[in-house]
Amino acid sequence: MKKILFATTNPAKLSNYKEILKTEGIELLTLADLNLNLHVEETGRDALENAYIKAKAYFLATGLPTIGMDNNLFIEGIADDKQPGCYVRRVNGKELTDDEMIDYYTKLVKDNGGKLLAKWVYGMVLVTDKDLYKHSWSYENFYLVDTPSEIRNPGYPLDSISINPINNKYIVELTLEEQKERNIRKSSDGVIEFILSSMKEEVCEK
Fold first, then answer.
1. Helix or strand or coil: residue 156?
2. Residue 108: CA atoms inside 13 Å, Cβ hemisphere, count?
3. Which residues are part of the catalytic machinery?
């Protein structure tokens, strides 16, 4: 089975792809699996640049094909200097915990009317000893609100203040069936296809 390192400490990101790729003969390893903890400065201007910075650093440390992933958050109706962009979890130079993120963003939303339309833009880079491969995508718009759900999704704190516009429910409170329907829509992100096609190119080049 081909091994690929996913350079993230966020278990929720990994779980989206791990089982599907396993059926295709690819094992996604975590930083915890390899007991790795590098300090990587994410100085990129967008999600793709930050994804590349992370993937390259961990590839050089391990020699394994490595995936880096990052996401930008854009919120309508707020000033440019308040846009999270690449720095969703880092505010004023500080790395926020899940609870601190909820506190910060609920206040931001409250200060701007109590309900704001938002969108995630994602970047993923796979670095190998032969080449690097890039993929980016965005997902459906959603609403950020100023009153959080009491339920938490570790690694994805904003799910507790995000409203799915299709059924007007907190994302963190979706039923298993609703989550399944949402994941089907999310499957159009093309990530699985991107990883498989990139690894196929690696094999062909060899």
1. coil
2. 26
3. 70
DSSP state of 25: T
Model pLDDT, residue 4? 96
| Per-residue pLDDT tens digits for 146-193 | 999 999 999 899 999 999 998 999 999 999 888 878 776 666 678 899
Looking up tokens 């400490």, which residue turns up?
9
Distances (CA, A) of 132 to 56, 126, 129: 9, 6, 8
The CB-side HSE value for 115 (13 A sphere, CA atoms) comes to 8
Count, residues in the chain = 206
Tokens coding 199: 């690894």
**12, 127, 177, 180, 196 from 57: Cα distances, Å:** 21, 10, 38, 34, 22
Q: Tokens representing 152?
A: 């938490």
